[in-house]
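ok new one. same drill as before - structure tokens go in, u give me an amino acid for every spot. 220 of them this time. try not to just spam alanines like last time pls lmao
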């Protein structure tokens, strides 16, 4: 697959990704390019030492308002207000933790210094946001992603305490769905997101939904 010189306007058609979901490789990277990619349903994911890989997988993992699931135990955690949940109080710390916290069956991080800088630029432009879970004044967990009003793409989560990232995500998702958010993009299948109500849909449907807000609830 040839390396492309990417600008905002010349990403390949997201439907043209290969069978693994890889759309294209390399090119410049900054906040505006990142925003344009996510707006089209394209996201970066690669090892830091590799050129940027741009993805558009089929199928796509998503959560709709009616599929969001909060277990009985998590409802108790939220009811007891174990964590204080905030938005955009500590974006850089959240992305740093997402890059450094060890995860089961995962080695290293996909968040390179170049990609971190692009996300910071997207945050300054008001599109990338963080959700934090605090306990006793200390950051206990959180997540970050890209928000476009009617849909949100979650990129990474971390927990320093049990249930912290779940509390951050569920609180954020519930509040945003009540305020008009109609789709959370989880990108690819994970057991963790499936446990929160995420399901797989065809890429063609996903791309149609994120392009047209009015069609998100038409059932097509």
């Amino acid at each position: 697959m040839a390396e492309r010189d990417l600008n905002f306007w010349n990403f390949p058609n997201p439907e043209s990704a290969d069978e693994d979901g890889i759309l294209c490789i390399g090119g410049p990277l900054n906040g505006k390019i990142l925003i344009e990619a996510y707006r089209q349903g394209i996201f970066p994911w690669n090892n830091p030492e590799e050129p940027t890989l741009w993805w558009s997988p089929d199928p796509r993992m998503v959560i709709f308002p009616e599929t969001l699931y909060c277990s009985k135990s998590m409802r108790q955690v939220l009811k007891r207000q174990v964590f204080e949940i905030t938005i955009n109080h500590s974006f850089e710390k959240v992305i740093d933790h997402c890059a450094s916290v060890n995860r089961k069956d995962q080695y290293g991080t996909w968040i390179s210094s170049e990609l971190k800088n692009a996300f910071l630029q997207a945050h300054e432009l008001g599109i990338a946001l963080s959700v934090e879970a605090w306990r006793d004044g200390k950051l206990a967990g959180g997540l970050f992603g890209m928000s476009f009003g009617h849909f949100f793409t979650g990129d990474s989560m971390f927990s320093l305490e049990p249930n912290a990232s779940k509390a951050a995500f569920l609180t954020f998702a519930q509040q945003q769905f009540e305020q008009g958010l109609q789709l959370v993009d989880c990108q690819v299948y994970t057991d963790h997101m499936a446990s929160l109500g995420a399901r797989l849909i065809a890429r063609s449907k996903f791309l149609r939904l994120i392009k047209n807000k009015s069609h998100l609830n038409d059932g097509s």
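Helices lie at 31-39, 72-79, 91-100, 113-124, 164-178, 191-194, 203-211. and btw The longest strand covers residues 138-147.
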